Amino acid sequence: MRLPNIQLDRTNDRVGHSATAYFSDFGLPFHLYDLRHRWAIRTLEYGLDIGLAAKQMGHSREVHERIYHRWINATIHQRAYELILSRDDRPRPPVRQETAKKEEGQDR
């Protein structure tokens, strides 16, 4: 596939319209802007820092949260929770002394 020859010395809105016109000739079953929305939602699903995702998309953190956080559902929350729990560098809960002593005795 050959990339379109798009003049980048224009506003993002104008570039977006040109790209949409170019890709519409291919009969895509979705709008080009849908890819932008889906990428933003996936950054939430995979735990990318919100500030970084917003900056990459060219808007503020507040705009990012207002537009995309409505898509956070129970599945996304669960995935984020499991991702955090699987990290080796996550904070650990405090261990009570009696529990620690019992566990030491079981190792012997």
UniProtKB/TrEMBL annotation:
Region (Disordered): 87-108
Keyword check for Chaperone: no
An example Gene Ontology biological process: DNA integration
Cited SUPFAM superfamilies: DNA breaking-rejoining enzymes
Keyword Repeat: no
Basic and acidic residues biased stretches: 98-108
Alphabetical UniProt keywords: DNA recombination
Sample GO molecular function, one term: DNA binding
InterPro entries cross-referenced by the UniProt entry: DNA_brk_join_enz, Integrase-like_cat_sf
Superkingdom assignment: Bacteria
Name of this chain's protein: Tyr recombinase domain-containing protein
